[in-house]
Amino acid sequence: MATGVDQAVGMSLVVFSLLLFTYYSVWVIILPFVDSHHVLHKYFLPREYSVILPGIAAVILLLCIGAFTAVIMWKSRKPKKAD
Amino acid sequence: MTKLLEWLFGVSLVGAVWALVTFDLLDLSLPQTYREVAWPMPLYLLVSFGCYSLATVGYRVATFNDCDEAAKELQEQIKEAKEDLRKKGLKM
């Protein structure tokens, strides 16, 4: 078994993804069937955000990947030789 | 029929069913709650696939066995690769 930090990081990833999945599932699938006066609705944002927030997350992810690639390519450019 | 065609056929079938339910193309007048559940479905599947990937990666990180000699060998190879790339002009 991996030790120490590896186990902690791995398990925290698993727990985080389980929480995210449960919250998102309740938000998208269960909430429309729940009576609109139920107290559960207090814990969830309006439904439009269930589409907007993942969209923003995807855009940020693509931006980070693009920025990382750009930085690496910028740092490794060679100056043009004068012929 | 190739695997690609099979997959495309399956995906377009599922997509057609989803579009039918979401945009009410056949005027079936389903109850509003079912339509509200159906329309974010593609995004929901994407998010759950992402969660599954994250959980798998996390679990395998947590249960991976330590292998000391392989770790040392890998560090050596990383050093070699960095030297090689530095000689070829890539700035790290």
From TrEMBL, chain A:
Molecular-function annotations in GO: enzyme regulator activity
The keyword Transmembrane is assigned to this record: yes
Localization, UniProt: Endoplasmic reticulum membrane
Transmembrane intervals: 12-31, 51-74
Keywords: Endoplasmic reticulum, Membrane, Transmembrane, Transmembrane helix
Pathway field: Protein modification; protein glycosylation
Statement: the UniProt record of this protein carries the keyword GTP-binding: no
Signal peptide interval: none
GO cellular component terms attached to this protein's record: dolichol-phosphate-mannose synthase complex; endoplasmic reticulum membrane
Stretches assigned to coiled coil: none
InterPro entries: DPM2
GO biological process terms held by the UniProt record: dolichol phosphate mannose biosynthetic process; GPI anchor biosynthetic process; muscle structure development
Membrane topology note: Multi-pass membrane protein
Quaternary structure and interacting proteins, as annotated: Component of the dolichol-phosphate mannose (DPM) synthase complex composed of DPM1, DPM2 and DPM3; in the complex interacts directly with DPM3. Component of the glycosylphosphatidylinositol-N-acetylglucosaminyltransferase (GPI-GnT) complex composed at least by PIGA, PIGC, PIGH, PIGP, PIGQ, PIGY and DPM2. Interacts with PIGA, PIGC and PIGQ.
PANTHER family xref list: DOLICHOL PHOSPHATE-MANNOSE BIOSYNTHESIS REGULATORY PROTEIN
Family to which the UniProt record says this protein belongs: Belongs to the DPM2 family.
Role: Regulatory subunit of the dolichol-phosphate mannose (DPM) synthase complex; essential for the ER localization.
Full protein name: Dolichol phosphate-mannose biosynthesis regulatory protein
TrEMBL record, chain B:
Keywords assigned: Coiled coil, Endoplasmic reticulum, Membrane, Transmembrane, Transmembrane helix
Segments crossing the lipid bilayer: 43-62
One record GO biological process: GPI anchor biosynthetic process
Pathway: Protein modification; protein glycosylation
Keyword Transmembrane (UniProt): yes
Compartment list: Endoplasmic reticulum membrane
Signal peptide from the UniProt entry: none
Any one GO CC term of the record: dolichol-phosphate-mannose synthase complex
Coiled coil spans: 64-91
Principal location: endoplasmic reticulum
Membrane topology: Multi-pass membrane protein
Xref: InterPro entries: DPM3 (IPR013174)
Tree of life domain: Eukaryota
Subunit structure: Component of the dolichol-phosphate mannose (DPM) synthase complex.
Purpose of the protein: Stabilizer subunit of the dolichol-phosphate mannose (DPM) synthase complex; tethers catalytic subunit to the ER.
Sequence similarity: Belongs to the DPM3 family.
Name the UniProt record assigns to this protein: Dolichol-phosphate mannosyltransferase subunit 3
